[in-house]
Write a structure and sequence with these properties.
It is a single chain. Helix content is about 40%, strand content about 10%. It is mostly helical. The longest helix has 18 residues.
């Protein structure tokens, strides 16, 4: 039987997560973005059971699995992009795009909303 756990609210001060991600995807905010994902990972680590499956949605949590793995979490972790993924040439314009998108390899499963998005990721 599947159960759902409620993630405790994680506060990042007066910041809004969307504003942090907007900055990340527009040239700044790398450290803050990763710190927020680490904070989520730290909170999740404290409540996860061995058989729990973690499912992360959208670009807010690209580095979440990487943080969970660094904390020793071995649970299955999935990720789904709800946002269209631009072509690789566009992604390459993002600062630190290599470290950001290589973080997706810490997930056991990555889903995309279209075949084109999947092809953009693979190229």
């Amino acid at each position: 039987m599947a159960t759902t756990k409620t993630m405790p609210m994680v506060s990042c001060g007066r910041c809004c997560i969307s504003a942090l991600i907007w900055q990340k995807f527009h040239g700044s905010g790398e450290l803050i973005y990763r710190a927020v994902n680490k904070r989520f990972a730290d909170t999740l680590t404290s409540i996860l059971d061995d058989d729990d499956i973690v499912w992360a949605h959208d670009y807010y949590f690209i580095t979440l699995a990487e943080e969970l793995r660094a904390a020793g979490v071995m649970n299955r972790i999935g990720f789904f992009f709800h946002t269209p993924l631009p072509p690789s040439a566009t992604l390459a314009a993002l600062p630190n795009h290599e470290s950001l998108f290589s973080a997706l390899f810490a997930y056991d499963l990555v889903g995309f909303q279209s075949h084109e998005d999947k092809e953009n990721f693979l190229s």
